Amino acid sequence: MATLRSYTRSLNILRKALDAQDDDLTFLKDYEMVINWIEGSKYALNSKKTIYIAVVASIKSIDEYAEACLKYREKMDSLNKAVQTGYEAQTLSVSETAKWLPWSEILKVVETARLAIEDCWSLQEYLILALYTMIPPVRLDYGSMMIVPVEPAKPVGNYLVLDSHPYFLFADYKTFSTYGILRNPIPPALLKVIKEWIEFSDEYLLISKTEGGPLGDVALGQLIISIFQKHCKKNIGVSILRHSYISYLRAKEMPVRQSDKLAKQMMHSPKMSMIYRKL
Prior knowledge:
mainly alpha, four-stranded mixed sheet, disordered C terminus, 13 helices
């Protein structure tokens, strides 16, 4: 289930796109306008689904929004079914096929981005690609990740813990109820990229907006698409990245224990872990 922060970010994206005021919900009554904007946006299926979830969660208990809520829920359910069907069948939609890149080609894009570094923001773009290719790719959980020197006593978000043995700590992600707090070690190659970026970054954020402040998960998803569009002319999003990575591992015929470990590293559900066993 999406978090409250994710709901807020999704609603703010709609407010900005549709010229609504901060904290305003009344524009959601015009469901045709809102749905047309979401469906016409460049967001991937999962991101669109997240936006619909945020809308439904925000208005479902308000009687005057009942009709609009029904329309949004229909779209949400339709997208959820499409995403789940794709996962279970391990097949691509028509739009995903047009965007598809095998893992070997994705790694070439990463190298192209590395060679194109010319300022701190192109370095951040390379960092983002490294985060999704040098370790098993998670969802958009780096969007608001904070940098801390020691692990918080009561973590409430996602963190890069820069102690003597740096690691990622995830405490705010979709399948938290399944795995709880996750601590993922950082391989040396990725740690090198992170340390290069930290010299230029916001002092407490792993990834930030150009004007400062956390980038956020939805904006991170859009930035990933933009980076691939710039370097290979394809709109590759995080869902395709994750799908391509899994496909790359199919030929390896992973044992059950390894497939379960991969599912946990990628924060997939137990059901997805069972799908891995069929790959």
